[in-house]
Structures are given as structure tokens and as C-alpha cells.
Amino acid sequence: MTDQGCSSFEELRTAAYALLGDASDWLRSDWQGRLTPQQAEGRRQALRHIALAKEALNQAATGEVSR
């Protein structure tokens, strides 16, 4: 936190990155045999979007935003 009580971009990025990692870990936990094909596809898509979000956060931190 800065003196004004607002978080810097890097603090927010770090926190968001960690939360995305936690969500990814939870989605990768033991789901074997408990998901329908549609649910398994939804989990796969969620993991892909999490990876894209983490990549976007890294790009924003370095100024390398892809289009």
C-alpha cells in the first residue's frame, strides 16, 4: 500500500496473480470421475482463461501488450 492507502499496480497484479493461481490449483484438484463432459469442458476453458489472464497481467507489467 502507498501512503494514500491505495495499492500500486504491482501489488494488485501480484495479488490477482496469486488468486488466479489458487483458482487454477483448485480446478486441477482431484475431479476424476465426478464431472460430466460439459463440466470437464468448462473446467478446461476456465483453466485456459486463467492462463490468458495471468499472461495479460505479466504483459501489462512489462508494457508488452499483444493485440
Give a description of the structure.
The protein has two helices and no strands. The chain has one domain. It has helices spanning 9-28, 37-62.
Summarize the structure.
Helices cover 69% and strands 0% of the residues. The chain has helices at 9-28, 37-62.
Set out the fold topology:
Blueprint: H1 9-28, H2 37-62
Structural class: mainly alpha
Whole-number radius of gyration? Answer: 16 Å
Number of helical runs?
Answer: 2
Low-confidence stretches: none
| Gap between N and C termini | 31 Å
Q: Determine the fraction of residues in helical runs and give it as a percent range.
A: 55-70%
Order of helices and strands: HH
Based on CA inertia axes, which overall geometry fits? elongated
The count of DSSP E runs of length 2 or more, i.e. the number of strands, is 0
Domain unit count: 1
Query: What percent strand?
Result: under 5%
Give the overall pLDDT as a whole number: 88
> Largest beta sheet, briefly?
none
Keywords:
67 residues; 69% helix; 0% strand; elongated
